Amino acid sequence: MIRTLKITFVTLVGVMLSACSMVSQQPTGASVSINNDTELALPLPAELGYSLTASQLISAMWETDTQQLPVQVEVTPDKVVLAGFSSWGTRILSLQYQNQVIDTQVLSGLGATLPQPEQVLFNLMLTLWPADAWAQPLQSIGWHLVDTDKTRTVFDDNQQAIIRIEYQAKVGEPKTSGEIVFKHLTQGYTITIQTLNSTIVDNPSKS
Question: Signal peptide location in the record (predicted)?
Answer without folding.
Answer: 1-21
